[in-house]
Amino acid sequence: MKFDTIIIGGGLSGLTAGIELSRKGQKCLIVSSGQSALHFFSGSFELCSLADDPYEAIAGLGDGHPYSKIGLENLKELARGVKPFFKEVGISMKGVKDANHWRITPLGAFKRAWLTMDEYATLPSDGKAPWKKVAILNVDGFLDFHTSYLASGLSEIGVESVIRSISMPELEHLRKNPTEMRSTNIAKTLTGDIIGVLAARINEYAKDVDAVFMPAVVGLTGCSDVVRLREKVDRPLHFIATLPPSVPGIRLQLMLKRHFQKLGGTYMLGDSVTGGLFEDGRLKSITTENHGDVRFEADNFILASGSFFSKGLVSDIDGVREPVFGLDVDSIDERPQWYRRNMFEAQPYMSFGISTDNDFRAKKDGLPVQNLYGAGAVLSGFNAMKEGSGAGVSILTALHVASLLNKQ
Q: How high does pLDDT run on average in the chain?
């Protein structure tokens, strides 16, 4: 089977590249093994969280950083297209292109973010809250949303909170087993006609407050329930991220996948690439676990398989390796140097990844493979945790590589 571009990895980076290529008429295949890091999504995208101005911080990053390979001016141009890109998919984002704002974490801390889903609570870059008093509501029995931590964090910026618990007969079947009272299961119940019932319960506690906060447990497969609930609640309703799994993250992945398929893309879920055939410095074809000896050919390939979490990189006694094609990896040979004893320090292993040239062509045996590109978390040279750059690298390297391929 022949495609213009085959993408290995169906998470944020792989789907972004697939959509951008398909929009330009390419015939694309995405091979996805399953769960991606989007299932841990906070509701916000970070570009670089080291300063209020993300580009000021980006300008000080090292030469080997993915952003540096894209180039600052090119990066800004790509970044301008991110909100319209997600708007086309059906996801509305708030935020401005050249300034960070503050998002509220599930534990009541405040972290810088670049773009955030419209329904989430955020603060402007100056940190001044637009509310004096809020109601923090939780679903009775839901343990992955900590109202007291959230109230404590809000009190530090002068916001008074009242905490209430919502009980609904429709959710009682989940309460029989604590393992069933999870965000995704709640979201499967809070849909359709129940949205009106939920809104009425929320309004009981929304009379004397400026806004209502609740866990992000609505809208598993699309945005319609979220929109209807916010319309029916008498006060501004804002969602707060929960501990994983992430309902909005799963929704985002499903919506990206549907849009990719709507554009004509082929998405193979639950399959893994087992290897590839290389000839004359190019990758000619790949094989997958579910299709045996069937070879999938393409003019170009994108590796967007993620880092250690999604097994785009693996480590063993011999070191760190890329398991699909045996690509070169930028790492440290001495295992004791992979980490710091202080867990709050920047950990060196976080910057490990495949080695690429300045056009993100992956290297094998020291030489770039002419038609195999890397994108997202599988790349080396950045530390997503320290920099607050994970989503930005995933999205912008995918858009950049797609633009390179669209120009061929």
A: 94
CA distances from 28 to 8, 196, 404 (A): 11, 41, 15
Spatial separation of the C-alpha atoms in residues 95 and 114, rounded to whole Å: 6
Cα angle 94, 53, 88; round to 5: 30
| Lookup: tokens for 67 | 């952003």
DSSP code of residue 84: H
* Cα 117 from Cα 92, distance rounded (Å): 6
Q: What percent of the chain has pLDDT over 90?
A: 85
Chain centroid to CA 95: how far? 16
72-80 vs 82-89: helix axis angle to the nearest 10?
A: 30
Amino acid at 179: T
- Which 8-state DSSP code applies to residue 313? S
In sign, the C-alpha dihedral spanning 359, 271, 243, 121 is positive
- Residue from 250, 33, 38, 211 nearest 133 by CA: 211
User: What pLDDT band is residue 173 in, cutting at 50, 70 and 90?
Assistant: confident
Q: What is the pLDDT of residues 276-292, one digit of tens each?
A: 999 999 999 999 999 98
Single-letter amino acid code for the residue at 170: E
Residues 6 or more apart whose Cβ sits within 8 Å of residue 336: none
Pull the structure tokens for residue 366: 């020291």
Q: What is the DSSP string of 12-44?
A: HHHHHHHHHHHHTT--EEEEE-S--GGGG--SE
**Do residues 398 and 376 lie in contact, with contact meaning Cβ atoms separated by under 8 Å?**
yes
235: Cα separation from own chain's centroid: 29
Strand ranges (E), 157-231: 160-166, 211-215
Answering whether pTM is above 0.85, one says yes
- DSSP assigned state of 341: S
HSE-CB of 229 using CA atoms within 13 angstroms: 27
What sign does the dihedral 287-288-292-296 (CA atoms) show?
negative
340/334 Cα distance (integer angstroms):
13
Q: What's the token pair of residue 388? A: 């607050």
The letter for the amino acid at 266 is T
Structure tokens at 156: 């530090």
